[in-house]
């Protein structure tokens, strides 16, 4: 199988997988539980979810390590098991991906806020990502994707840590941020706009940039277009299946696979390189995206 | 009054040190704590809230301003007690079970303290039963709940239900907030109020705790 970095140079769309959190909720995870704890207790669930996305056409299987940095795991008392949690997630994904699909490690925010507006030193955040990423690299990955970032400084620290963990390795480092639609344009909650995101992430060393979460497909198309305007780097977009609403005491995501795929057509024509799904997306959403690309 | 305007401006800029220093100056000039609070600190924080709502500034600026406000409040605290300003009431605050986001809740806590309430902040990931327990123990008039994740919002309903089961709905009022929360949701679960930001929360809590004739 061609390496992901080389594959990206063809500038043809690659299908990512869909949401992990929502898939875990469906399989019994409670909102209060640590999603990564499943890596220790129910690894078979990760294999099942990966298999469903693979069968739907995903070429990228992301690991269940979004909250796998020790700083984030500490809120559940699981930071001591950081290495195990990350390694097992990679193993589960690899079991399904084999050599036919790419195992990309998902790394989300530390959950801490940087000084001076928060209480955490940059060094502590960088070290936390370094520890997580060392474990991920050791387990054998085809890429790292930083997700749901809102603070550009944190994202850059994570990219630095990823580069160091990668060492002489070949895999691409990808970074996505979450934007809110405002009358003044798209900004992360920390005030980062798309041009600043693209420039800052690229300067730190990300090889693929884009956005995930926070928006349904229509806003994501707009976000994609803006990214394409401001950078030549390959773009990755992982959209929610709309914004969730509460129905009968449960969170429901309203955007259907057909709806998402139809709107995603624009992104593909415009030249987005990796298209996947985030919260609320299912294997059916991925299947619809695959059919769109094949068609 | 110039010094109070200055406090407001420095608070908006997140200048913690300046706000403390100027607040102390205002105290030394024998301006009442209530006036310093209202026309200096709260005035500044209100502008911050409006600019945030209008997407002119973002979270880092809000957090820095909140730090400056906390600094000013710390300087004022002894003078408020010394002036025998009693707390208007007690409010229990928390981010609901399963949710770790607390910036919004923290801002509400600061603003409520500024408005004269005693705030018992239970932190985040607070189980429904704990809200009740704290309200009981503390004799709180209001429980305020925050959530940023849609998936954790059902926990708010649980608190309201527990209050009903314990026959406390008349004594303890509930107010909810957070990005995915809405007035509709508050109505649906039987919460007494919904607030869209920290300043609105203070207005709502005041309305809830006003003595009914």
Short descriptors:
heterodimer, A: 295 residues, alpha/beta, TIM Barrel, eight-stranded parallel beta sheet, two-stranded antiparallel sheet, 12 strands, 46% helix, globular, B: 213 residues, Methyltransferase, Methionine Synthase (B12-binding Domains), Chain A, domain 1, Rossmann fold, 2 domains, five-stranded parallel beta sheet, 5 strands, 58% helix, 11% strand
Helix content of chain B: 55-70%
Let me know the number of strands of chain A.
12
Oligomer: heterodimer
Give me the number of helical elements of chain A: 12
The level 1 CATH classification of chain A is Alpha Beta
Order of helices and strands of chain B: HHHHEHEHEHEHEH
Q: How many runs of DSSP E, i.e. beta strands of chain B?
A: 5
Strand order of the largest sheet of chain A: 1-12-9-8-5-4-3-2
Distance between the termini of chain B: 36 Å
Radius of gyration over C-alpha positions of chain B, nearest whole angstrom: 17 Å
End-to-end gap of chain A? 23 Å
Top-tier CATH class of the largest domain in chain B:
Alpha Beta
Outline of chain A, from the CA principal axes? Answer: globular
| Overall morphology of chain B | globular
Runs of chain B in which pLDDT lies below 50 for 5 or more consecutive residues are: none
Provide the residue-averaged pLDDT of chain A.
96
């Amino acid at each position: 199988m061609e390496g992901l970095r080389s594959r990206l140079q063809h500038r043809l769309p690659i299908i990512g997988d869909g949401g992990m959190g929502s898939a875990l909720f469906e399989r019994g995870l409670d909102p209060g539980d640590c999603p990564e704890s499943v890596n220790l207790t129910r690894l078979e669930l990760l294999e099942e979810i990966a298999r469903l996305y693979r069968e739907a056409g995903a070429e990228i299987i992301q690991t269940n390590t979004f909250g796998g940095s020790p700083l984030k795991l500490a809120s559940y008392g699981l930071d001591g098991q950081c290495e195990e949690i990350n390694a097992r997630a990679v193993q589960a994904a690899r079991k399904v991906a084999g050599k036919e699909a790419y195992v990309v490690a998902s790394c989300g925010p530390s959950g801490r806020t940087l000084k001076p507006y928060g209480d955490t030193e940059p060094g502590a955040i960088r070290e936390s990502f370094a520890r997580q990423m060392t474990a991920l690299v050791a387990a054998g990955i085809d890429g790292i994707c930083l997700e749901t970032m809102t603070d550009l400084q944190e994202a850059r620290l994570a990219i630095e840590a990823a580069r160091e963990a990668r060492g002489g390795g070949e895999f691409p480092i990808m970074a996505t941020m979450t934007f809110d639609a405002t009358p003044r344009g798209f900004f992360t909650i920390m005030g980062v706009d798309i041009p600043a995101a693209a420039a800052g992430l690229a300067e730190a060393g990300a090889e693929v940039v884009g956005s995930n979460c926070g928006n349904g497909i229509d806003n994501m198309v707009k976000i994609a277009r803006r990214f394409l305007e401001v950078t030549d780097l390959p773009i990755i977009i992982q959209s929610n299946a709309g914004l969730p609403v509460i129905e009968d005491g449960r969170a429901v995501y309203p955007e259907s696979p057909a709806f998402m795929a139809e709107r995603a057509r624009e992104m593909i024509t415009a030249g987005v390189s990796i298209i996947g799904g985030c919260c609320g997306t299912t294997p059916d959403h991925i299947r619809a995206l695959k059919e769109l690309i094949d068609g | 009054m110039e010094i109070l305007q200055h406090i407001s401006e420095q608070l908006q800029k997140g200048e913690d040190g300046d706000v403390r220093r100027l607040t102390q100056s205002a105290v030394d000039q024998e301006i009442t704590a209530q006036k310093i609070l209202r026309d200096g600190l709260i005035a500044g924080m209100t502008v911050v809230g409006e600019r945030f709502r209008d997407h002119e500034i973002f979270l880092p600026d809000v957090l820095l301003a909140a730090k400056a406000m906390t600094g000013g409040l710390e300087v004022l605290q002894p003078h408020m007690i010394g002036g025998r300003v009693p707390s208007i009431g007690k409010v229990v605050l928390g981010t609901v079970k399963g949710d770790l986001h607390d910036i919004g809740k923290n801002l509400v806590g600061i603003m409520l303290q500024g408005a004269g309430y005693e705030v018992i902040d239970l932190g985040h990931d607070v189980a429904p039963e704990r809200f009740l327990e704290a309200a009981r123990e503390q004799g709180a008039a209001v429980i305020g709940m925050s959530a940023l994740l849609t998936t954790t919002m059902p926990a708010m309903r649980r608190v309201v239900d527990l209050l009903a089961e314990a026959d406390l709905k008349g004594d303890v009022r509930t107010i909810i907030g957070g990005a995915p929360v809405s007035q509709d949701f508050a109505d649906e679960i039987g919460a007494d109020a919904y607030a869209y930001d920290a300043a609105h929360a203070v207005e709502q809590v005041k309305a809830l705790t006003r003595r009914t004739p």
